[in-house]
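Appendix B. Raw example, untouched.
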Amino acid sequence: MKLNITVLPGDGIGPEVTHEALRVLRAVAEVYGHEFSFDEQLIGGAAIEKTGSPLPPATLDSCLASDAVLLGAVGAPQFDGLAGDKRPEAGLLALRSSCGAFANLRPVVCHDATADSSPLKAEVVSGADVLIVRELLGGLYFGSPRGITNGGATREGFNTMRYDEAEVERVARVAFESALARGRKVTSVDKANVLETSRLWREVVNRVARDYPQVKLEHMYVDACAMHLMLNPRRFDVILTENLFGDILSDEAAVLAGSLGMLASASVGGGTDVYEPVHGSAPDIAGRGLANPLGAIASAALLLRHTAGLEQEAQDVEASIRAVLERGYRTADIQGRSGKYIVGTEEMGTLVAEALAEIADMRHAYHAV
């Protein structure tokens, strides 16, 4: 397998966790005989400092010409005073739009080894395995008109939540197809009691569901979903929802895994897929070697699965993460009561790469017999 990957380390802890994801991808290439090439480019605050733009043309050109994009994190406090379209986050939104990645897949798994890292009781989170499918290119984040008015006695900010039927249908199909390979249940989350967009959303999802009789569909208001995620997360298989709700719910769901640093994401459906950990740039710990790289490494596993079609390699990376956690290794954010050895960013990445080599060696030995 030959794969061209654009790497966007970004801001804050982004370069640190991306470095460890690349370490594991290079180990995959070496162990399984693949050829991965990496083109590092600028995005976000790092790009603003060098070029004045949060998404320079050279970065976008590289992304659109690659098979996949691996992103670290975007955002830095020193840029908070810039106009909205000039801030680091504008580069991320423009990248998603340009790549056409309309479906964001955010798997949330509570590993048995780290169940005590969650602030919730272990008996609540143990066994939780949820896939959140978030629509990524519509809703309040992209709807128009939007802005801040300067006239009159007081300023007014406004945004537009907007969806058309085609946008809802295409992401709904991603959710139902995903459910077929999992527990065959979709929970569609909306606010249909007050929002017209949600009423349209529910109507379209019901129509799509008729093409998937093997999958059970339920509808749930977003506030109720937020509550049930904390009370009974095992009731969920695939959660389907729009952009804003999905952003909030997926960050809330990090409680199940013990930390935002554990969560990966895949933005798919367009010309180029984008993979990134869910956490932000965490400037307070940047450069200190404290960041949890497992979300970035798990994002690399999603890249192997969804873009490269290398399912075995993806499973082996995920098994390597589990193996390291089961041996008691933790970064500070997931220490819990069962953590025996607290390690830094680089050491955690090295441990996962070493575990991957061990798993591959065992598989080769088994096949040799």
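End of appendix B.
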